[in-house]
Design a protein that fits this description.
This protein is α/β, with parallel strands linked by helices and 464 residues long. It has 22 helices and ten strands. It has helices at 14-17, 24-33, 62-77, 80-89, 95-106, 119-133, 138-157, 167-179, 194-205, 218-228, 238-243, 261-271, 304-314, 316-319, 322-341, 343-368, 370-384, 386-397, 403-413, 422-435, 449-453, 457-463, and strands at 2-8, 39-46, 50-57, 91-94, 186-190, 210-214, 231-233, 247-250, 278-282, 299-302. Strand 5, helix 9 and strand 6 form a beta-alpha-beta unit. Helix 5 (95-106) crosses helix 15 and helix 16 packs antiparallel against helix 18 (386-397).
Length: 464
């Protein structure tokens, strides 16, 4: 059964969510230990607004599934006590509900910003990370492939992504509303990833002319600065740049706050800017701005939770597209669940498919060479097994056991002994030539050899 354990902005505030955030090191450890005899596959999605773990469990009994969830929670949080705390906060989903949720996430229907255009890329990156770790398998591959396809369909077939559709763009809009005009405001963007880039571009679009960009990789800051007409600065000057700014928007992947309250206070005093207002916006999870900055005079702090209220108003223009997007998602959910339901049929027919593919591959190689054998054999077997597979699917839906069907197909089609490839026949002939005396007569071809080479694949398999 497909299961998920999720902590997101709808059920947990940013302070709670960051407790369950995983660093790269801990994510590697999770993937290394998550799989068990029951837990066959696992993949984790992490964005600024959610951390969700998906798994395929080889069990249908709820007691076994609950044990698997307990195991995953302990692997996620390292200890039993912390795992229990996670499960008290997390939302659990099973089967079609879990599939529907990740498909809706990919489509932007579950984002803090309705139709968030960044979520699809984040989902794709998370799945690639899981796949490279070796923690995924055919079920999660199919699930994420379906989710990504649904997201692309929503992008192209609906208007859900019209207008502003990212946290960065909304943050820039809030800064613009706060000052009325950004033309005379110094704006600092810390972090030049996708969120930081969208923030910077939206600030420029809204009139910002004094834009400073900082990034751990200086080249990235310089590249973005050249693209938007801003100025790049070194990360070591962060507190100085923040002290001299009107707006600072932070969107980095740091595991700890990089903008510290004490350092900012001292720098503002040294620069003589303590009496000026400063808007700080933290778009990161875990938070990258020390919450203690709220104690500083003139400083306003906006974090992901604070952003939620104004974002709701901006969603109205996209809400008319929600029903259409939901129809796309339901189509994809139905497709995935049908694939899951017919897994027993595919498993039952797999040995026969492999046996027939091997026969077809060898026969095609005999006639046309190894270069075209693999692809042609696969196509031949797919056509041969289309009707048997359809019959097995119907049997699964009727709740019938598949053993009798499978055995009948094997008795009808499976080869009784291996078939020699043309390459092995040639090799054997060469060995025969070497072993025979020079004046020995050439061995005559076996009776029926010419007839066999021109018969059908099924006849060859039987004759040999």
């Amino acid at each position: 059964m497909l299961i998920s354990i999720a902590v997101d902005f709808r059920h947990a505030d940013v302070a709670t969510r960051e407790q369950f955030h995983l660093s790269e090191e801990r994510l590697t450890q999770l993937y290394r230990t998550a799989r068990t005899e029951t837990i066959r596959e696992a993949a984790l999605i992490a964005t600024c607004n959610r951390t969700e773990l998906y798994a395929w469990v080889a069990a249908d009994d709820m007691a076994e599934i609950d044990k698997a969830i307990q195991t995953l929670a302990r692997r996620w949080m390292r200890t039993r006590a912390n795992g229990e705390e996670l499960l008290r906060t997390a939302t659990r989903r099973y089967g079609a509900e879990a599939a529907r949720h990740v498909i809706r996430v990919a489509s932007g229907l579950e984002s803090q910003v309705l139709g968030d255009g960044q979520i699809l890329g984040q989902l794709r990156s998370a799945y690639k990370r899981a796949a490279h770790s070796g923690a995924t398998g055919p079920v999660l591959h199919r699930l994420f492939e379906t989710a990504l396809r649904a997201g692309k369909r929503v992008q192209t077939e609906t208007s859900l992504l019209s207008g502003r559709h990212s946290i960065g763009a909304e943050a820039a809009s809030i800064a613009h509303q706060r000052f009325g005009s950004l033309q005379n405001a110094r704006c600092v963007v810390v972090g030049c990833g996708k969120t930081g880039e969208r923030t910077a571009r939206q600030l420029v679009k809204l009139g910002a002319r004094d834009l400073v960009l900082l990034n751990r990789s200086p080249a990235k800051a310089e590249s973005l600065a050249a693209a938007v007409g801003g100025r790049a600065a070194a990360m070591e000057t962060l507190h100085v740049e923040a002290a001299m700014a009107d707006v600072v928007i932070v969107a980095t992947g740091s595991e700890t706050p990089i903008l510290q309250a004490d350092a900012l206070r001292r720098t503002r005093e040294a620069c003589g800017t303590s009496g000026y207002s400063l808007l700080l916006m933290d778009l990161s999870l875990p938070r990258n701005i020390d919450p203690a900055v709220l104690e500083l005079s003139g400083v306003t702090l906006v974090d992901l939770d604070t952003l939620h209220t104004p974002i709701i108003a901006a969603e109205e223009m996209r809400r008319n597209s929600v029903p259409e997007a939901e129809r796309v998602c339901e189509d994809e959910v139905a497709d995935f669940m049908e694939w899951v339901e017919t897994m027993p049929a595919r498993d039952a027919i797999r040995p026969l498919r492999e046996a027939l593919t091997e026969v077809a591959r060898r026969e095609v190689a005999w006639a046309a060479g190894d270069a075209v054998a693999e692809r042609t054999a696969t196509r031949i077997v797919a056509k041969l097994l289309a009707r048997p597979m359809a019959a097995l699917r119907k049997a699964v839906k009727r709740g019938e056991p598949l053993d009798a069907h499978t055995m009948m197909l094997f008795e009808m089609f499976a080869p009784t002994r291996p078939v020699e490839s043309r390459a092995s026949v040639r090799a054997r002939a060469r060995l025969t030539d070497v072993a025979a005396p020079a004046d020995s007569p050439m061995p005559s071809a076996p009776r029926g050899a010419r007839m066999v080479s021109s018969t059908s694949t099924a006849s060859v398999a039987v004759d040999r």
